[in-house]
Specification:
Porin; signal; mainly beta; about 70% strand; about 5% helix
């Protein structure tokens, strides 16, 4: 939480002090604190409208605050704060913060934060949207960031371009690479590290004789899949990597049934490329508490960019040859063994 400590210090420097008795003002206009209509007593006023060319300071805001660079509210704020660089609220935010770089509020009781880079708040945030990162104690709504989201309890949705981190999640986590949580039944990412979830390492083969080492990780319902391997009989597509998502449909006693969707890419790194996307059903049988055997059918769409890489496999339902490229839809199968960590 170094990020929170740094941003907290910034807010303390900008927003905290013992506030004098507040007076209400219809408007506050200035250039750069204390060059404003309230001068060096700006922190003693709660305003309904604020307009500052660069940096403005107030004790509170109950309407619209517009700042060319930064706005600092030492108390509570409601309405809208908009700044080119930074918005800071030392008390409670009930409204909307818009900043080109960063928003910081001590607590939130409603509203939203929108920032080009970073949003930080304590308490419960209804909505946070940032180009890079969001940090809050809890979310009841949505947290969306281009890179990373960090929260405690999430009631709603976390969407991160790369990583989401949370405590208890009552909703959905969606990340480009990694979800981390204490509990999360519906994480959607290639890798999901859930404390009360499941992690499985496996080895499998299929109708193309792709021998893959896989890692499945997620919650009690959804999980992610990442795998890598080789196809020893087909040198034109010898090396393969796969990513996908799965859902647990049935889990009773020693039996479970999963459904997965995956996308596989294979190449020899010499110009031959093979793509495969599909859906498969994977019944599994537990052999003790940590070992499972699994196998089942799948339906796939495959494409190869050369005739040499277009090896037929499985039971073909449709195929098309166009110049050197071959496309097909076929039925195949997968079998394997996995270890539950």
């Amino acid at each position: 939480m170094k990020l929170r400590h740094i941003t907290g210090l910034l807010t303390l420097l900008c927003c905290s002090s013992l506030l004098p008795a507040q007076e209400t003002s219809p408007a506050h206009v200035g250039i750069l604190y204390p060059l404003s209509t309230h001068g060096d007593k700006a922190a003693a006023y709660t305003n309904h409208f604020s307009l500052h060319a660069l940096w403005g300071v107030s004790g509170g805001e109950k309407g619209l605050g517009l700042y060319g660079a930064a706005g600092t509210v030492k108390g509570d704020a409601s309405g809208v704060q908009a700044a080119g660089v930074f918005n800071g609220v030392g008390g409670e935010l009930k409204g909307v913060q818009l900043a080109g770089v960063m928003n910081r509020a001590h607590t939130m009781a409603g509203g939203a934060q929108f920032a080009g880079v970073l949003n930080v708040t304590g308490g419960r945030a209804p909505v946070q949207l940032a180009g890079t990162a969001n940090v809050t104690d809890s979310v009841k709504g949505a947290q969306v960031a281009g890179v990373v989201n960090v929260a405690g309890h999430v009631q709603g949705v976390q969407i991160g371009g790369v990583v989401n981190k949370a405590g208890k999640v009552s909703g959905v986590q969606i990340a480009g690479l990694l979800n981390i949580a204490d509990s999360s039944d519906y994480p959607i990412a290639i890798i999901n590290i859930v404390r009360n979830g499941e992690k499985r390492v496996g080895i499998s083969t299929d109708e193309n004789l792709f021998t893959m080492v896989s890692f499945r990780s997620g919650g009690r319902k959804l999980y992610g899949l990442v795998a890598a391997g080789v196809s020893p009989l087909h040198p034109e597509r010898r090396y393969a990597a796969e990513g996908g998502l799965g859902i647990s449909l049935v889990e009773r006693n020693a039996f479970r049934l999963d459904m997965e969707t995956g996308h596989l890419f294979a190449t020899d790194f010499e110009g031959h490329e093979y793509y495969r996307s599909g859906l498969r059903l994977l019944p599994a049988l537990r052999l003790g508490s940590h070992v499972q055997i699994f196998g089942g059918p799948g339906v796939y769409y495959a494409s190869a960019n050369t005739r040499e890489g277009a090896v037929r496999a499985g039971w073909e339902l449709w195929e098309r040859q166009r110049l050197a490229e071959r496309q097909s839809i076929y039925l195949g199968g997968t079998v394997g063994l996995q270890l539950v960590l």
